Amino acid sequence: QVSELVQFLLVKDQKKIPIKRADMLKNIIREYKDAYSEIVNKAGRTLQEVFGLQLVEIDTKRHIYILINNLPRAEGQYLCRDKEKEKMGLLLVILSFIFMKGNSVKDSALWEFLHLLRVYPGKQHSVFGDVRKLVTEEFVRQKYLETTPIPLTDPPEFKYQWGPRAEKETSKKDVLNFVAKIQGKDPTFWASQYSETRA
């Protein structure tokens, strides 16, 4: 629940819309509402440690939260414009999903995963624009992702893998550490992925 909430808050924050407790309960926490404050506190800690963001309640009556940046911007690496930075955030989430699923995922599995983050292909997203286009065209053209048709599928299906640029700009070790931080676990928890990062 914590890692889903962290990803939900990050996606919400990209629109800079305040986040309501009701939305967190309805979309993410659901039947765990007795543990609401524990889940939110843990998510807040993760956001602070991993992303340098602080989860702040701006309206205690109606329980409305925002994320604020409490770290000086990292020099160099993310000096690209905010929209670009957010696209890179989405890309990192997609790359980690592919890696954790064994380095290759069907397009249907990828869209399902993005659905969980409230990012819908075919719907205009306020930050990413046309998400399907961003993933299938832009990230592929930039060589962050590679697609291969799956033979004998009707309608045709595709597999997504890391592209050569992703291999150069990040590493499986960094991605595993990113996932481990979001999930609050040690990277060794995922034995096969961990051994792959050591290879």
Q: Describe it for me?
A:
The protein is α+β, with helices and mostly antiparallel strands and 199 residues long. It folds into two domains: 1-69, Orthogonal Bundle (Arc Repressor Mutant, subunit A), CATH 1.10.10.1200; 82-197, Orthogonal Bundle (Arc Repressor Mutant, subunit A), CATH 1.10.10. 52% of the residues lie in helices and 17% in strands. A three-stranded antiparallel sheet has the order 1-3-2. Strands 4-8-7 form a three-stranded antiparallel sheet. It has a two-stranded antiparallel sheet with strand order 5-6. α1 packs across α3 (36-51), α3 (36-51) packs antiparallel against α8 (172-183) and α4 crosses α8. The model is unreliable at 71-80 (pLDDT under 50).
CATH topology of the largest domain: Arc Repressor Mutant, subunit A
- The number of strands is 8
Top CATH class of the largest domain: Mainly Alpha
- Report the span from N to C terminus: 31 Å
Which sequence of SSEs, written as H and E, runs from N to C? HEHHEEHEHEEHEEHHH
Question: Which class do the helix and strand fractions yield?
Answer: alpha+beta
Poorly predicted regions: 71-80
Instruction: Describe the strand arrangement of the main beta sheet, using strand numbers.
Output: 1-3-2
> What is the oligomeric state here?
single chain
